[in-house]
Structure to design on (112 residues):
């Protein structure tokens, strides 16, 4: 079994930055891909970004150039650096691994 624990969410002003972390434990060796989804109130959950064990990445068009995903395989941890945040980025961000496992989510609120 795999457990995913997110951290790093919070309240930030428009234009600000946050860094999310997701640490995997349990049978977490070389999980691939690892990534982030988000769900805003009243909307469906959507892919934000994901990264494969070899380092290749996929990004949603709405975050290209603003968000960067990375991973530390030795720590079984994936990161999401979010820059130039916009109010429409407000959502619960969920860590996802191996097309199977989900974290409980961390809330990101972008507001002045």
């Amino acid at each position: 079994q795999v457990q995913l624990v997110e951290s790093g969410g919070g309240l930030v002003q428009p234009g600000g930055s946050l860094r999310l972390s997701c640490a995997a434990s349990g049978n977490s060796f070389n999980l691939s891909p690892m990534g982030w989804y988000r769900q805003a109130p009243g909307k469906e959950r959507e892919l934000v970004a994901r990264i494969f064990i070899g380092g290749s990445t996929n990004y949603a068009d709405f975050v290209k150039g603003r968000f960067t995903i990375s991973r530390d395989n030795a720590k079984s941890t994936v990161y999401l650096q979010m820059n130039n945040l916009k109010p429409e980025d407000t959502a619960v961000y969920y860590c996802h691994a191996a097309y199977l496992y989900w974290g409980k989510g961390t809330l990101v609120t972008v507001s002045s």
Observations:
- The radius of gyration is 13 Å.
- The chain has a mean pLDDT of 95.
